[in-house]
Design goal:
Length: 87
C-alpha cells in the first residue's frame, strides 16, 4: 500500500473542507501549528484538537480519528493580556 500526501493551507479563523477524494481517508496529519480536525464538512461534528507534535498526529487511530476527517480549521487565537493603558 502506497501512502499519498496532500498539503492544505488553512488560513487563520478559516475552515477548509477536504477534497472529496480525501474525505474520510486520512490516517495521519503533520500540523505546523494548532489545528482542529472535524468529522463533518464545514467544520462541524465530532472534533479533535491537535497541536504541533501532539500525540496522535502521526497515527489518527491513536485518538480515534482514523478515516474520519472531513474538514480542518485553525485553533482560535488565545486572548492576549491587554497593556495597562488599554484597561
Amino acid at each position: 500500500m502506497h501512502s499519498k500526501m496532500i498539503k492544505l493551507k488553512v488560513e487563520m479563523d478559516a475552515c477548509v473542507n477536504l477534497p472529496s477524494s480525501w474525505e474520510k481517508q486520512v490516517v495521519s496529519v503533520d500540523p505546523s501549528g494548532c489545528i482542529i480536525l472535524y468529522a463533518d464538512q464545514d467544520c462541524r461534528g465530532f472534533r479533535k484538537r491537535l497541536d504541533k507534535w501532539s500525540f496522535g498526529s502521526s497515527n489518527l487511530r491513536d485518538i480515534a480519528f482514523e478515516s474520519k476527517l472531513s474538514s480542518i480549521s485553525t485553533c482560535p487565537k488565545k486572548p492576549t493580556i491587554p497593556d495597562e493603558d488599554e484597561l
